[in-house]
Specification:
It contains 15 helices and twelve strands. By secondary structure, it is an alpha/beta fold. The termini are close together. Helices cover 43% and strands 11% of the residues. It folds into two domains: 240 residues, Rossmann fold (3-Layer(aba) Sandwich), CATH 3.40.50.2000; 166 residues, Glycogen Phosphorylase B (Rossmann fold, 3-Layer(aba) Sandwich), CATH 3.40.50.
């Protein structure tokens, strides 16, 4: 079967689908992954075909051309404006990225609201593969709402409202795409009703270790386990990283992924000072924030790195300090090491709270707290807890054992086999 996977956004929004694609390819399917040029090497390294999507979340701009930093504290309005610009660009290229001979579309949460219209126009089946729980439930509020429960009725109501916000964000791009595909106009309510049809399967790529499947979800919404980014069998850490690790006790990882662009100098200084105060070694991952220890060149106990697979790096850490994106949070848990959560925006407070609830993380520190005068001692204290409290490591290790028993990509492969039968 010729399968197209579409995924858009940051590294964490794209990389998990390389693992899914590789698994499907091993099962005999022909798999292409459509995403941004930035991730073409990652896709091709996994042995998958690559198709280009025109939008890139780092360069998308609102219609007025105003530049936006990546999401930061209190930046929800800027985030929405940037998301709308990104979606508008994405809609224009998704149809072009879909080969005419595609037999099955696998859609990430970002591409699904547009990809479903392509599936309708081409009369091909599609399957949603979101990385976060986006269906309304009474168990918890929408994952982008900050993590505070509103009660069962309030949670469900907020969940439905969150879907309407998504519909509004995609409305313009959807209208243009349907016209381009020769489809009749469709109201957002009509599109949503089709999406929620009881016979439509949806596979969620996270683990019930962190989020048990809500009992009030309809049949067909299945939590199957994490999809791990592909990396080459036998891959090794770069020699300078391996040498650093062997030169002393396990360090603490600090990174913000695709968050905090433009704040690298301030955050780098904060990270170094907190590591020194906690009296531990550290690894700073540059990411979009461009973290670097270059201004502290005399400190041989801190190393700056670029992109390295979490699966290779995290198990060698004494603790991981990060923004708690869905994939990064799961990677820390998979490695069995404690987390210090520094959630910035969107779904990150949700995942931070989930890690803390299973006892594998310290109390989350909101990103805005890193701008206060107490930021250094606050972060240092959390690092000390994460690296010295046996209970945190024990619970993280227990969660890692449970994650190891899951096969999320295998569940996708079985569903695809049923669809192709």
């Amino acid at each position: 079967m010729k399968i197209l996977i579409t995924a858009a956004g940051s590294y964490g929004d794209v990389a998990p689908y390389t693992g899914v694609g590789a698994r499907l390819q091993d099962a005999g399917h022909e798999v292409v992954l459509a995403t941004h040029d930035t991730y073409a090497p990652l896709v091709r390294a996994a042995g998958l075909g690559f198709r280009r999507l025109p939008a890139d979340p780092r360069t998308a701009r609102p219609a007025d051309g105003a530049a936006e930093k990546s999401p930061s504290p209190g930046g929800n309005r800027a985030l929405m404006r940037q998301a709308a610009a990104f979606i508008q660009q994405l809609g224009g290229g998704l149809a072009e990225a879909t080969p005419q001979d595609t037999e099955l579309l696998l859609l990430s949460a970002t591409t699904a609201p547009l990809g479903r219209h392509i599936a309708e126009a081409r009369d091909i089946p599609c399957l949603d593969l979101p990385l976060v729980p986006n269906a309304p439930t009474g168990d918890f509020a929408p994952v982008t709402s900050g993590g505070r429960s509103l009660g069962r009725w309030g949670n469900r109501t907020a969940g439905r409202l969150a879907l309407r916000v998504v519909d509004r964000l995609y409305a313009g791009a959807t209208r243009d795409l349907r016209a381009r595909l020769g489809l009749p106009p469709a109201a957002p309510r009509t599109v949503r009703r089709r999406t929620e049809a009881p016979d439509r399967p949806v596979l969620y790529g996270f683990s019930e270790v962190l989020v048990p499947r809500p009992a009030d979800w309809r049949p067909g919404l299945d939590v199957v386990g994490n999809w791990w980014p592909w990396h080459a069998p036998g891959a090794q850490l770069p020699s300078r990283v391996a040498d650093f690790l062997s030169s002393g006790p396990p360090p603490v990882f600090i990174g913000f992924g695709s968050m905090a662009s433009g704040e690298g100098e301030r955050l780098s200084d904060l990270a170094v000072r907190a590591l020194r105060r906690a009296k531990v070694r550290g690894i700073l991952q540059s990411g979009w924030a461009d973290l670097s220890a270059q201004h502290h060149r005399n400190d041989s106990d801190i190393l700056t790195i670029g992109e390295i697979p979490h699966a290779l790096l995290y198990p060698r850490m004494s603790a991981v300090v990060h923004h708690c994106g869905a994939g990064t949070a799961a990677a820390g848990l998979r490695a069995g090491v404690p987390t210090v959560p520094l959630p910035v925006t969107a779904d990150q407070p949700f995942w931070a709270a989930r890690l803390a609830s299973v006892g594998a993380a310290t109390t989350p520190i909101p990103f805005k707290a890193l701008a206060t005068e107490d930021a250094v001692p606050l972060l240092a204290e959390a690092i000390v807890r994460a690296t010295t409290e046996p209970a945190l490591r024990r619970r993280a290790a227990d969660a890692a054992r449970r994650l190891a028993a899951e096969d999320g990509s295998g569940a996708v492969a079985k569903t695809v086999d049923r669809l192709s039968a």
